[in-house]
Amino acid sequence: MLNNYKKYQADTASLIELENLETKASVEKDPLSTLKLAIWAYFFLWIFEGALRKWVLPSLATPLLIVRDPIAIYLIVRAMYLNVKFSNAYIVFASIVTLLSLIITITFGHGNLFVAIYGARIMMLHFPLIFIIGAVFTKEDILKMGRVLLAINILMTLIVYLQFSSPQSAFINIGLGGEGSSGFSGAMGYFRPPGTFSFITGLSSFYIMVSVYVFYFWLSGEKISKVLLYASTLALIFSLPLTVSRTAVGGVVLVGLFALVGSATSFKTIIRIVLTIFALFILFTILQKTTTVFNLGTEVFMSRVDTASEQSGGFEESFFSRAIDGFVAPIVRLLEMPFFIGNLGMGTNAGAQMLSGSNGFLIAEDELSRIGGEQGLLLGGAIILLRLGLALSLFLKSIRLPQQDKLLPVIFCGTALFSLTQGQWAQPSMLGYSVMVAGLLLASINKNPKLE
Questions:
Q1: Beta bridge partners of 285
Q2: Is the dihedral of CA 323, 329, 332, 337 positive or negative?
Q3: How many Å apart are CA 177 and CA 199, to the nearest integer?
């Protein structure tokens, strides 16, 4: 028996050694594999963080608010250890401005260290991930994530269908922490479903990102399962009215316009564009003729658009004026603010909860007003200019690419530019989304991973 036990130990040790050698060989083959796995973890937690906080671990809803932060720290430390070339003037400038704002907030501002740190983590931890993703991911990594996203889209649409069709008291519509409901007011007595996210803004951004890949795979002819592409496209079209979200529909339309701009002018591509539009029209018609819920969702969505249009002065105002006003009005208010304001973190919902016990907005709901209200004219203005400058730089790099490399980056520009300039980074889901789409845009511009 003793001999058998020793033989078992020897065999076990050999297996462990073999596994270690295989792991080491895999890492040596792709030294960035650990970083890529962490990026995938960040991606999945962006999608399912709300599900954890509502359905799986409701008692940990508050701690899970920062569930991606440890991954962000790991990515930064690991990238530095592997000598990944991601640090640049954007990161250095953002870090300096945020640290100054942190010092002013603790010294002369609201003085709550935890709120200030919570606000500082946006630019100190998550903002650098844009450049890490851009330096690490290859085009195949980007497309692999797209294929996974299209598969998740089918599951997400099923969840949205159940949320839209079920009463707010149903488990599928339960709110954060297992309390209340997660739906938001829509129209005709129906609510805007959040899917697996905490809020409707997360679901809207999800479908906009799905549309990036739907348009790309239709227009590029890139390798993908046709069954998956057709099913996910059908799911996207079916889900948009059920979201009752103008942001989701408007965002998908904008991505489609950028897809047309990024397409080549060759006859072959024009034929592919025509076929894509025709296929989308056929799918829309099939849903309209055969699906009662789709027709109901369309009616509810149009009712909300009509109501918003009446309140804001017309259809164009409802869809387009918000984006313009969301940029111009905060800039005007910023110019009227003091040079320095010590309110870092106060503009986030979590910060408001810690400071006042309220879940409302202590500063402003829109992003640019939040930044200005937290950091003042000088430092807040610097962060706004930084984000505008990065968005402009990525757009110019995208349109200057050779025609054969241009399509994917330009389509990503359809959502990444808005997320960089006006995305509500104080909201965790939107912060995660903005990091992902901007990072994937940068990765689609960069051709090879960068190691020093």
A1: none
A2: negative
A3: 13
The span from the CA of 344 to the CA of 359, in Å, is: 16
For the record, the structure tokens of 200 come out as 């409707």
Instruction: Print pLDDT tens along the chain (452 aa).
Output: 445 545 545 554 554 454 454 445 444 567 899 999 999 999 999 999 999 999 999 999 889 999 999 999 999 999 999 999 999 999 999 999 999 999 999 999 898 999 999 999 999 999 999 999 999 999 999 999 999 999 999 999 999 999 998 888 888 988 888 776 766 676 677 788 999 998 889 999 999 999 999 999 998 888 899 999 999 999 999 999 999 888 899 999 999 999 988 886 556 666 777 777 777 778 777 776 677 777 777 777 777 777 766 655 554 555 556 666 666 777 777 778 888 898 998 988 888 888 876 666 778 778 888 999 999 999 999 999 999 999 999 999 999 998 888 999 999 999 999 999 999 999 999 999 999 999 999 999 987 655 54
Contact 208, 415 (CB under 8 A): yes
Distance of CA 185 to the CA centre of its chain: 23
SS (H, E, C) the chain: CHHHHHHHHHHHHHHHHHHHHHHHHHHHHCCCHHHHHHHHHHHHHHHHHHHHHHHHCHHHCCHHHHCCHHHHHHHHHHHHHCCECCCCHHHHHHHHHHHHHHHHHHHHCCCCHHHHHHHHHHHHHHHHHHHHHHHHCCHHHHHHHHHHHHHHHHHHHHHHHHHHHCCCCCHHHECHHHCCECCEEEECCEEECCCCCCCHHHHHHHHHHHHHHHHHHHHHCCCCCHHHHHHHHHHHHHHHHHHCCHHHHHHHHHHHHHHHHHCCCCHHHHHHHHHHHHHHHHHHHHHHHHCHHHHHHHHHHHHHHHHHHHHHCCHHHHHHHHHHHHHHHHHHHHCCCCCCCCCCCCCCHHHHHHHHCCCCCCCCCCHHHHHHHHHHHHHHHHHHHHHHHHHHHHHHHHHCCCHHHHHHHHHHHHHHHHHHHHCCCCCHHHHHHHHHHHHHHHHHHCCCCCEC
Residues whose CB is less than 8 angstroms from the CB of residue 85 and which lie 6 or more positions away in sequence, other chains included: 135, 450, 451, 452
- Enter the pTM of the model: 0.88
User: How many degrees, rounded to 5, is the angle at CA 399 between CA 396 and CA 400?
Assistant: 80
Q: What phi, psi does 192 have (nearest 5°)?
A: -80, 115
